[in-house]
Every structure is written in structure tokens, then in C-alpha cells.
What does this fold into?
Amino acid sequence: MRLRSRDPKHVDILEYDGSNWNVARQVTSRGTARSNPDGSRSVWINRGEDCAQTQGTFFHEELHTRQPATMSSRDKEIEAHVETERWQIARGVPGSPSRRTTDAQGREVPDVAAITRQIDRSYGYSQGAPRIIGRSANGQTVTLEDGTTRAAQSGDRMQRQTPGQNLCEEPIDPALLTCP
It folds into this structure.
């Protein structure tokens, strides 16, 4: 596995109002994962996060490298966020209270419904899946993650990396990853 650190990556969530694409909000991506064509895997994590955040981000992103290509990106994100919360709960690692609930036995568990709502809002999904991954130069046509195209619809959302960022990526020596 190739590990790299970077400055926090900011992502714009664009929303189509029926005639124009506008920045609805900006989110910070905690990490990125990729399965490479040569079979290797790469994970990027942000510098400056505390130990618990870094552990959770690494677990989440590494899980992405093992998910089947046949899963939709929305389902991949939901699974990764639910399993990361489950992993953090099992280890007593603080997570996000808004992503947790209590089951019938009084145990803390991931709140799948809350996580799904947060994924749909934060990742720019429009009416569920498939995800919009591109748009035409005039913005009137969108490309979906399954390779199909359609006319842009009012309320459509998509992500784009905020322009002008220099992420200052550097390799990480896995032997140096320790938490107190």
C-alpha cells in the first residue's frame, strides 16, 4: 500500500438551478483511496488531523480499496462510513455523535439512516444514485458514473475539486504511523 499525506483537499458541491451550476457549499475531504492499474493500492490522508481522525480516515480509505468495482459510489461511501463508525465504536475511538445511535440493548451503534443522509448531502448525490461525475461545457448535459448521459435537472448536484489548490503531497513511511 502506498501512503501519502497532503494538505486538506477542499471539494465544491455544485448544484444546478435549472440554468446554471453554482457552488452550494464546500466540504473538506479527509482522505482519498485508489486501487491502481498495477494492482497496488494508494491512500492519501490529510496532515494536521488528530490521531483518532487519522485512524478513522485510514480505516475508511483502506476499506475503499477492497470494495468491488460493481458497487455504486454511493453504496461504497455508505458502507465505508458505517463500517468506520462500527470500527471506532468497537475500539472506543471518538467518532461523530450525529452518526451514532443506541440499539434495543442500549449499545452504541452506527446510525445508518443518519449516515446515509449525510452522504447524500456531503458527496453531492442527486436523487440517490448514480452519481454525476461530469458535465458538458454548457452545463446542460451531465455524465453519470455508469457512463450514461442525460439532460441536467434542477436540483442536480456534483462534486469538483476546488480550483487552485496545491495539496503538497508527500509519501508517508508506514513505520512512522503511531498513536499514543
About this structure: Residues 2-176 form one domain.
